Amino acid sequence: EFTRKEVTFTVYDFPRDSSRVAAAAQTMAQRYQVSGFPTMVIVDRQGNRLSQNVGVAGDIEVYKRWIRSF
Predict the structure, then answer these.
(1) Average of pLDDT values for 62-70?
(2) Nearest in space to 47 (alpha carbons), one of 1, 22, 10
(3) Is the peptide bond before 38 cis (omega within 30 degrees of 0)?
(4) Is residue 26 a contact partner of residue 42, using CB atoms and an 8 Å limit?
(5) pTM of the model
């Protein structure tokens, strides 16, 4: 329910074999300066980065509060 009503999630996969990383994933990683995994980036409708988290922040409720703070 949370994802359908409040946000849109996009997932990019980064396999260990970097030659298999999709071009779209490479573009997003460069655009938002992703340097570690997992990384979650919150962007506005124009693609401007609002916040970024690297690593695991906790359970789903922690993520919901973080996302809703914007």
Answers:
(1) 87
(2) 10
(3) yes
(4) no
(5) 0.78
Distance of alpha carbon 57 from alpha carbon 30, whole angstroms: 22
Give the model confidence (pLDDT) of 31-49 as tens digits. 999 989 999 999 988 999 9
For the chain, what is the HEC assignment? CHHHHHCCCCCCCCCCCHHHCCHHHHHHHHHCCCCCCCEEEEECCCCCEEEEEECCCCCHHHHHHHHHCC
Cα(11)–Cα(56) distance, integer angstroms = 15
**Exposed e or buried b for every residue in 55-69, given b needs 16+ CB within 10 A?**
eeeeeeeeeeeebee
Find where tokens 């922040």 sit: 57
Cβ–Cβ < 8 Å for 13, 25:
yes
